[in-house]
Amino acid sequence: MAEFFRFDDLTWPEVADLPRDLPLVLPLGTGYPELAVEKALAFPARIGLLPAFPFGWPGSGLELPEPTLAAYLKNLLDSLREDGFTRIYALTPPGIDLGLADSQLCVNPGQAQDSPGLALPPQAELNKVILMPIGHTEQHSLHLPLSVDTMIIEAIANGAARSVPDIGYALPVMPYGVSTHREAFAGTMNAGGRAFEDFWLAVVDVLVSRGFDRFYLMSGHGGNSSFLVNVVKYAGDRHKRIFCATAWLHTSGAAGVAALDKYRESKIGGMGHACELETSMALALRPDLVHMERVKDDIDFVTTPNYYMDWVEGGALVANPPWDDDSVYGAYGAGSLGTAEKGQIWLEAAIAEKVQHIHEIHEQHRLREERRKAGYGNWGKK
After folding, report:
1. 346: closest CA among 150, 170, 152, 142?
2. Which among 65, 80, 157, 182 is least surrounded, fewest beta carbons within 10 Å?
3. Residue 349 — left, alpha, or beta (φ > 0 → left; ψ -120 to 50 → alpha)?
4. What pLDDT does residue 114 have?
5. What is the mean pLDDT of each run of 10 residues along the chain (382 residues)?
6. Which of 131, 283, 128 is closest to 219 using CA atoms?
7. How many CA atoms does the CB half-sphere of 242 hold within 13 Å?
């Protein structure tokens, strides 16, 4: 029997130490029998499982155009190839051709992924704000797993949806986003900016065609943010009767920043990536995956008055210099100051912030529809 392990539970140095001929598998959905996967791979001793891709293929409940899905997946697989891995596979149900040739394994899932009643989101969720949590699989210094961004935004999105079930519904979290610093540290994936934008715009397109009209693209990873702004702009231009919004990460509005300022121990520069904030939240959510004995703070950012690193404040300048200039271990900030107690406080603040945003998105759509129906401005000429 092969040993299956979760790729995203590892830290980047652990990924760097993996044999490059070890098979790594990225599954579309879940439920694949392990024995069938072993057989398809000719019974290796170990198999690394990447986070499951949540939707996009026929039978997933939210089907997208195949070229859009294929481009996203191809970029992710190429990330691993660029790290030197030679046995990289997308694991899919039969009957799907993504043009990945020998990099695609077809195995019958052990559960019905093509149930006629499966829909994401169900039609019963019409007239609610559809939350789209998007994390990432990337390095988080020596002490945190690759899954940090995903686990945090999943907890925040699900917590917000549970808080306002009458007006909010969360899709399954997407564990893959965009990292332009991919080459700096092992284990960092990259969906590619253009493929990322095309994918999420296609998600909005499909949901609009099904009658949904309120969307909140929620990111747990800073590298996604500029691309999500573009998606929101494209979606709003394409679909005039929707309200589609995003925000800079989480815990970044007035109430969230107040909670950070009240409890943080680090100075400006102590919160950015694998930092006091993310370490604290990870300790609150999955302490078993946090290795505090390995923490190395990276706080030597090249700072000038209008360009510096912190969770919200970054100065007036926008740039993208190499991570190698500022980070030795893969962090931006003081992870050594993280605690589970602060993490729980900040998670609750982040959820409350997102709940406020959900209410505002819902209200924005309602007020704008009232104006449209009343013939406000140019709407009265249509």
Report:
1. 152
2. 65
3. alpha
4. 47
5. 96 97 97 94 96 96 96 97 96 93 91 63 97 98 98 98 98 96 88 97 98 98 96 97 96 94 95 97 98 96 92 86 92 97 98 98 97 92 78
6. 131
7. 28
User: Which residues have CB under 8 Å from 376's CB, separation 6+?
Assistant: none
Map tokens 């500029």 to a residue: 226
The Cα–Cα gap between 44 and 145 comes to: 24
User: What distance lies between CA 11 and its chain's CA centroid?
Assistant: 17
Location of structure tokens 């394409």: 238
The answer to whether the beta carbons of residues 87 and 48 sit under 8 Å apart is: no
Q: Are 160 and 173 in contact (CB under 8 A)?
A: no
* E strands in the chain: 3-6, 24-27, 46-49, 88-92, 104-106, 129-134, 168-170, 214-219, 243-246
Q: For residue 355, what are its two tokens?
A: 């709940």
Q: Which residue type, as a one-letter code, is found at position 158? A: N
Among residues 109, 124, 155, the one where a domain terminates is 109
pTM of the model: 0.96
Cα(212)–Cα(192) distance, integer angstroms: 27
Contact 38, 321 (CB under 8 A): no
Tell me: cis bond preceding 58? Omega within 30 of 0 counts: no
In a domain, 369, yes or no: no
Q: State the total domains in the chain.
A: 2
Rounded Cα gap, residues 335 and 280, in angstroms: 8
Q: Provide the domain limits for residue 335.
A: 254-344
Domain boundary among 109, 129, 153: 109
Residue 303, domain member (yes or no): yes
- Indicate the pairing of strand 88-92 with strand 46-49: unpaired
Write out 174-231 in H/E/C secondary structure: ECCCCCCCHHHCCCCCCCCHHHHHHHHHHHHHHHHHCCCCEEEEEECCHHHHHHHHHH
Residue of 284, 280, 307, 300 whose CA lies nearest to 140: 280
d(CA 178, CA 75): 10
